[in-house]
Amino acid sequence: MFYCLDNDLLPQITHMGRNVTRPDWKHVQRACSDYVLYIVNDGKMFISENGREYVLERGDILLLEPDKSHTGFKEHFCDYYFIHFKPNVFTAFDCSEIKHIEKIITENRSEFYKCSTMSDELYKKTRLFIPKDIKIHDSNVLMELTTKADEAITSIYHMSQHCKLICSSKFIEMLAILSDYFSTERLNLRDDTVVKLSKKVEAVIELIHRDYSKKLTGEAISEKLNQNYDYLNRIFKKQIGITIFEYLNNIRIDKAKELLVRGNLKSSEIAESVGFCDEYRFCKVFKQKVGITPKKFSSLMT
């Protein structure tokens, strides 16, 4: 099974914590009305859901569904995190829909790079998927997850007035980390060529984010990355959906928006600081992308 988060709903955490058990511990038998997410930090957990058995070890993550029978079937020491949350936030997909999910994952990446971070498009156009169970092999990813969980648990322990909101926000961060890890794993398993191409595309993206304010030509990009520019542009468009220079202009316009909101620079100064050769070119591209002039945008935002 796979689960897609509803972007319009805030996950409501019922109960969250960490349990370090005795050596003779065994999970209780119950049917819970919530989803329950387990993250095993150490030891082993032997648990079944409606008769299907799972043996969880360090790095294993399991999502138990509401109103199903959960039973421990063997005693063992276990150090694990648990998160109980209301069942209205996920849409479930069965395993037969994995190709459809992979297509959405690929489209998610493309939409992320095409959408402005200052708009609400990403809420509508990208979807967060997690699998029912997954093994986290990367110790850094596991540490990220447990750190977020510890921060949420600390807010409860200290009786923070807004501990529920803190727990929900940390949980969303954990789901995002899980979704990213799952997405990368799926693409790795599906086609190693895709991964190799993705690394080249990521190198282009990293270069653009670092040097967007500089004069970037096809020749300069080719020289910096030691790759043929036409080849890079072709695989970039295939994976992201737009050309390298379309993406560069998107980043420059986003950075310009941030500067316009601050309101302390002239249009010509902003054009220069984000990498446009002159103010005229900046205003032309800005209006093409945003639909209004930089001056109009500034007046609406300040």
Question: TL;DR of this structure?
Answer:
The protein is of the alpha+beta class. It has helices at residues 98-114, 121-125, 139-157, 163-190, 192-211, 218-225, 229-240, 244-262, 267-273, 279-290, 294-301; strands spanning 2-5, 13-20, 30-31, 35-43, 45-49, 52-56, 60-64, 69-72, 78-85, 90-93, 129-131, 133-135.
Describe this structure in words.
With 302 residues, this protein is α+β, with helices and mostly antiparallel strands. The protein folds into two domains: 1-190, Sandwich (Jelly Rolls), CATH 2.60.120; 191-302, Arc Repressor Mutant, subunit A (Orthogonal Bundle), CATH 1.10.10. The chain has eleven helices and twelve strands. It has helices at 98-114, 121-125, 139-157, 163-190, 192-211, 218-225, 229-240, 244-262, 267-273, 279-290, 294-301, and strands spanning 2-5, 13-20, 30-31, 35-43, 45-49, 52-56, 60-64, 69-72, 78-85, 90-93, 129-131, 133-135. Strands 2-9-4-7-12 form a five-stranded antiparallel beta sheet, covered by helices on one side. Strands 3-8-5-6 form a four-stranded antiparallel beta sheet, with no helix packed on it. The chain is elongated, with a radius of gyration of 23 Å. The model has no long low-confidence stretch (mean pLDDT 89).
